[in-house]
Amino acid sequence: MSSYLEGIIMLSGINLIAVLGLSLLTGFAGLFSFGHAGFMAIGAYSAAICTTIFKLPFFVGIAAAAAAAAGASWLIGRATLRLKGDYFCIATLGFGEAIRLILDNFQGLGGARGWPGIPPHTTLVNILILDVIGVVLLANLVRSRHGRNMIAVREEELAAQVAGINTFKYKMLALVVSAAYAGVAGALLGHYMTFIQPKMFSMVKSTELTIIVIFGGLGSISGSVLGAVVLTFLPELLRAVDKWRLVVYGLAVIGIMIGRPRGLMGGFELTPKSVRAHFARLREAKAARADQAAEEKGGL
Amino acid sequence: MLNVENLHVAYGGIRALKGVSLRVEEGEIVTIIGANGAGKSTLLNAISGFLKPAAGTMSFKGKPLGRRPDIIVRDGICHVPEGRLVFANLSVENNLAMGAYLRNDKKAVAADLERVYSLFPRLAERSKQSAGTLSGGEQQMLAMGRALMTDGDLVLMDEPSLGLAPLLVQTVFEIIGEIHKLGKTILLVEQNAFRALSVADRAYVLEQGRIVKEGKASDVAADPAVRDSYLGAESKAGG
Amino acid sequence: MSDILQVRGLTKRFGGLAAVNEVDFNVREGGISGLIGPNGAGKTTIFNLITGVYKVTSGSVSFEGKDITDTEPYRIADIGITRTFQNIRLFKNLTVFDNVLTACHASASYNLADSLLRLPRFRREEKTLKEKALELLSILGLADRKDAIANGLPYGLQRRLEITRALALDPRLLLLDEPAAGMNPDETEQLMRLIGDIRNRFKLSVLVIEHHMDLVMGLCEHIVVLNFGQKLADGTPDAIRGDKRVVEAYLGGGE
Amino acid sequence: GGAQKADVIKVGWFGALTGDQAVWGNNEFNTVKMLFEEINAAGGVTVAGKVYTLEAVGYDNKGDAQEAVNVVRRLTSQDKVIAILGPNASGNAIPIAPILESAKVPDIATVATNPKVTVLDGKVKPYNFRVCFIDPYQGAVAAGYAYEVLGSRKAAVLYDVSDDYSQGLRQFFVENFKKLGGEIVADESFKSGDVDFRPQLSKIKSQNPDIIFMPYFFKEVALSANQARELGMTQVMMGGDGWPSEQLISMGGAAVEGCYFVNHLDYDDPDVADYKARYLKKYGIETELNGYLVHDAVLMLVDALKRADKPDGESVAKALESTNIKGITGKIAISPETHNPEGKDAAIIKIIGGKYKFQQKYAAK
Amino acid sequence: MAQFLQQMVNGLSIGSVYALMAVGYSLVYSIMNFSNFAHGGVIMFGAYFGFFAMTQLKLPFPAAFAVAFVGTAVLAVVIERIAYKPLRERNAPFLYFIISAMGASIFLENIIIATIGPTFRTYPDVFGRTSISLGSVAIGRLDLIMFVISAVCLAGLVLFIEKTKIGRAIQASAYNMKAAALMGVNTDRVVMIVFALGGMLAGIAGVFFGMKYTVYPQIGNITTKSFVAAVFGGLGSLPGAVLGSVLLGIIETLVAGYLSSQFRDLIAFVILIGVLVFRPTGIMGKTTEDKA
Ligand SMILES: Nc1ncnc2c1ncn2[C@@H]1O[C@H](COP(=O)(O)OP(=O)(O)OP(=O)(O)O)[C@@H](O)[C@H]1O
Ligand SMILES: Nc1ncnc2c1ncn2[C@@H]1O[C@H](COP(=O)(O)OP(=O)(O)OP(=O)(O)O)[C@@H](O)[C@H]1O
Ligand SMILES: [Mg+2]
Ligand SMILES: [Mg+2]
Known about the structure:
- The structure holds five protein chains of five kinds.
- Chain A has two domains: about 5-270, ABC transporter involved in vitamin B12 uptake, BtuC (Orthogonal Bundle); about 270-300.
- Chain A is about 75% helix and about 0% strand.
- Chain A contains twelve helices and two strands.
- In chain A, strands 1-2 form a two-stranded antiparallel ribbon.
- Chain C is an alpha/beta fold.
- Helices cover about 40% and strands about 25% of the residues of chain C.
- Chain C contains ten helices and ten strands.
- Chain E is built from eleven helices and two strands.
- In chain E, about 65% of the residues are buried.
- Chain E has a two-stranded antiparallel sheet.
- Classes of the chains: A mainly alpha, B alpha/beta, C alpha/beta, D alpha/beta, E mainly alpha.
- The interface of A and E includes residues 245 and 254 of A.
- The structure holds adenosine-5'-triphosphate (2 copies) and magnesium ion (MG) (2 copies).
- One adenosine-5'-triphosphate sits at the interface of chains C and B.
């Protein structure tokens, strides 16, 4: 495999982890975050501290990244999770920018000039292992009572409350888990690039992640997987068109939103069972259409 | 006045109306009764342009029905929707003003406003309150009042007595009577079939998307099958 | 029979408006009580106050002898009170089964680690949850619709689903806000029977808001009447039917 | 025709063609394409006795580090280039080092002035080179000139806290100015993307410095200079190599009159003027600073190619280590220890009458 | 003291830029209930329209100004038709609108870069760069004009929405399109009017932004700040958008002037969160309890 292809696969694998986390938050719990790159930054720097300064093994760095991002998200959640919709959105946006500003000013870790010399621990193998773990854990989570409670919060908050669901707690859980995923992604990214710089975790990165989640389809893990792969590869495929690349990218985003009502895989989960059910539904719908057509003719 | 022929409507794969034909003559009160989910609201929504029929034709005052809801309103059909749909962010007063959106003669509008307030004194009391905080019943009154303000010729009413206290249910039916006396034609959908049949001239029975019975209201009310499944205790007690 | 719920001096103001004003009443344990009154009398507001959706302006609510005034809504459900809404609030895009299954969550105790790793406890309890949800659905007659999306259900079935969801929490007190709204008399009658059955089967107490007098009079053992936020009367159906003030303010002369 | 078709050597370029750094990226890539055309038209390059033409393969990375890595992977493994020109941002040049190393392809960065681009933890990176001088040097030049030549004793600094270049220059200016005995009376910052600097400027104004050091790019320089003048500030302003651009004059106008900046070259030099004119003729717009540097990067590459044993990355990298040429930005003598052009004089430019007037060469002590 | 007064003037000036951007943004929000991230792109186009009208078409300022805001009104309507209308017609959740808007904003920024290039452009001098001095406090002439124009736009807009029939139809449609259609409102046209108005405001903001600062493809990014300001002031409330903008401008200025310019945005953010914790719907947002 060429190093180029390998690189893109690695990046989509890394993106995927962050996207999975955000998918839990946005797709399942219905919260919209503009600051996820901030959690990635926390993860990247925490992991780099572990491996570069303290010379600890990589997996310790990854665990530290997850823990640090989760901890930060818990704090920020305490302050902002009671806010609704766009108000929460703004709070996360502010958070993401604030993290970046702190890192920019913190010369101990390189400040805005960045931190080179991080060991290249990230490999295709450890990315793929973490991807699989990430997907399995997330799938397990959303199909448990905890996951269902998050979905209930998204669907109808008041009814969820009255059904005995502590909506604050479940929003927090979704936020913390998704931040931990973002932290892990940050750790992987840092050790893939061997260099981290606050700039890498800008709001553009956060919006990119959100676009992937929605592009893939809200509430669909397989959609997120597909979205992460497609949208990491798409800009690379568009390299040939040079500066028109982002023009096409923008159009593609609009196109999918208006062309695919629920994202690439919205509401649909790719499992053997669902595929069978889908075909069964298709057959039924076809039969129903034929039925209806016959009747309309008869009625005239 | 209104003619519906062989109307088919579907929600995605679910077929809600399967060839409904009906007509409403000028000056009539026509009622449609049917169980939950029979397709009554679907029928009214199709008439007022919110649902695109899969097949069928509709005409109003001899002309084919317009395509968009606002054009249909302009032609003189107004719709009191199921679930009220009052403008929660506007005051009661402004909700009523919205009713008169298409009208330009200020005097007549003012007179209609007076009449609405006298029909529903509660609305006059709450004229400055934002409609979203009204109680369920108050919102229903507002929805009726707002429809009166549009001054259409044909009024479609979707379960106007829904969620109203008995006293008000009585009032609502009185109001339907009054609106009718003002020369308006009414197509009424009601669960309270007993009441509906008693004010209506003619009636249709809708079952699972099909008209299964039609006729003079009194005949329909007397039909044993209808009595059994739609009129319930009230008719049994009354009859 | 003791009282499961006691409401004392309950008041709620919205700006200058006292939507509920110094209301006292009790709900009997194991009984079906009715809460009636003209539109805007404050019935729904009382439900909102009991279930913690609104903050009480003054007064208190106690349940089984314990003060529960201003408890968070989700805690109220744990304590044993659940409700339905006047404007149906289902988890619209989920299936009927998932609506109920979600509400069953409190019957399981597996933790986050159990679910992430699918430990035996998760499997065991999840199986019980699913069985419980299915059982409830079949008791309430929704079993054949279990895979339908809640939003597309006919109105009546949506109401029924809301009740099922409330029952999934094993309440001891069930609050129903206009369960028969939008039903025809026949369906209303079925609903009446259903509510009676539920009470007997699940051994719970019911407080129901309704405008269908057949249902209220036929079902309730005890009725509280509100008017303009205040309690107007309180008693057996017969007493209420005979109360001149109630007839005047609510029932109407014709009936 | 019997002319034998020459073999092609592919050279990569990358930088920002989109995003907020696009001005510089477009300028660089245009220059590379223009020079390659000229070289090919003049017969190409002879490597180890064989004639080759040059082909530029360029990609946009939006100024994004992650994309820089993708692009370099692509250039090395897919397009099989033998050398890469660019990028202009240090943050993009640093993370590509391991990939260059494993692909054995040298890179000549243009305006990446962070020391860590070529040297990390005291070790030189074998495949990273650059054509510009580095931040510590530029900072020292600016501080020295301000203190010793302009006689400033109280300096204020305004910098872009989220930009690596700006932060680096600020740091070395402040260190050197203090070492010389000067005082930093205000040390204010803004964030990339900001357009209003009056709060910071008002604060600086209240400290009444002799000089304001503004180590950032011309857009912000023009905006902040205009705003400072609007606030009635008359101080001399000074900056680094982010300043020079035709657009600085058109946007800054009178506000930047009489100000100084540290530059890589003297605009009045005939070689410089020649390139400038060629660029204007071909593209119809003025070149930017990046164009001069990538111009010299191309010279460096061509020189290395001529001296290389084989037209491959490893040999070119080896040849680059002993570069000693004269470019339009001055003498370029690459040090094998640092891969930086050592002893490159800085040019001090003053803006007079809307023109860049060369003042003197200045080397920091 | 002089510095304090100057800082207040600075804050007001920055605030009025945010305000001009935030009002159009907030207007669209109030009816469509989603954050129209393409607004920044439209503002950027406004700046270019005005610039080219003055430099290429050699129009006098008032004409160029008109070209700009008519152009952006059309642009905003076109974006609505292409990127939002199909979503509106199938009642897509607000997230889809936001993503579509982001797509549009990426498109707008990059189409400029790809066609006319990324260079910075400077407006010809219209109002003069000199400022009016009051003691030691300098007030920019352009700032004053902008301040007046923002105030006039806002007042006009509020009157239009509160007092006219179409305004009421806009409010009604904002709440429920279906119900508005039942009253005979052509909701499609209402949406068009709202986008045209929002676009016009964007054009005005763009021209002033371009004159005050400069014209470049990334102008849209600055609207993030006005987005924050609008939320801070209370989403969907036009006076709130203005108040939020001015407050944000002043807070930022005072933080930069007296606390730390390094941490300006951080401190401003903490203040913002503090306000939202106590007023979860912003300063002027309605705080009604959800009616259950
Ligand atoms: N938005 C929708 N999506 C899918 N199915 C729908 C939708 N709305 C209605 N239906 C289905 O269409 C059928 C007819 O519904 P409709 O609302 O017209 O009934 P109705 O007679 O008005 O009943 P009700 O008395 O409950 O108001 C029902 O089976 C219902 O489930
Ligand atoms: N959030 C609120 N803000 C302001 N006023 C409110 C609010 N909620 C309810 N009200 C007012 O309180 C009064 C009681 O309302 P409530 O919904 O409790 O009535 P109700 O008895 O349930 O009536 P209905 O039978 O019509 O549902 C009404 O006048 C209503 O306008
Ligand atoms: Mg209906
Ligand atoms: Mg109620």
